[in-house]
């Protein structure tokens, strides 16, 4: 019985630490079609060109600003789509840890619709 408890606690600890961040995939689209090479900025810092990924925190207080820039398109300034994270919720309930602070983070796939730039 002691071995089972040790294994259970170990698995819960691993699950709770895994839930602290999410690998987010960024895509830029126009009319549902992907745009490659759009620059993606998180809180003003360039993280790459679409399609790209970044590891972002699931902390409930984190709300990074996202900027997408592509030649021929309007700059998009927005936030992330977020969702509840099951791992930290279960860890918070079972271990009574403050895991609830990491229970609402970004969705793994973020698709951003860009609008063509208008010329006058």
Describe the protein in words.
This protein has 120 residues and is of the alpha+beta class. It contains two helices and ten strands, in the order αββββββββαββ. It has helices spanning 2-18, 86-95, and strands at 21-30, 33-35, 39-42, 45-49, 52-57, 66-69, 76-78, 82-84, 104-106, 109-113. Strands 1, 2, 5 and 10 form a four-stranded mixed β-sheet that branches. A four-stranded antiparallel β-sheet has the order 4-3-6-7, with no helix packed on it. Helix 1 packs across helix 2 (86-95). The longest helix is centred in the first third of the chain and has 17 residues, at 2-18.
Strand content: 35-45%
Order of helices and strands: HEEEEEEEEHEE
Helix content: 10-25%
The structure class reads alpha+beta
List its traits.
120 residues, alpha+beta, four-stranded mixed β-sheet, elongated
Give a short overview.
The chain is an alpha+beta fold.
Would you spell out the secondary-structure blueprint of this structure?
Blueprint: H1 2-18, E1 21-30, E2 33-35, E3 39-42, E4 45-49, E5 52-57, E6 66-69, E7 76-78, E8 82-84, H2 86-95, E9 104-106, E10 109-113
Parallel strand pairs: 1-10
Antiparallel strand pairs: 1-2, 1-5, 3-4, 3-6, 6-7, 8-9
Helix pairs in contact: 1-2
């Amino acid at each position: 019985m002691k071995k089972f408890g040790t294994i259970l606690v170990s698995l819960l600890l691993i699950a709770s630490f895994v839930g602290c961040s999410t690998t987010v995939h960024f895509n830029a689209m126009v009319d549902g079609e992907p745009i490659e090479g759009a620059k993606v900025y998180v809180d003003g810092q360039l993280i790459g060109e679409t399609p790209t990924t970044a590891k972002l925190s699931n902390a409930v207080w984190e709300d990074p600003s996202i900027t997408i820039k592509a030649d021929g398109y309007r700059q998009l300034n927005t936030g992330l789509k977020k969702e509840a994270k099951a791992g930290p919720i279960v860890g918070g309930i079972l271990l009574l840890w403050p895991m609830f602070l990491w229970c609402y983070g970004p969705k793994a796939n973020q698709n951003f619709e860009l609008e063509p730039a208008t010329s006058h």
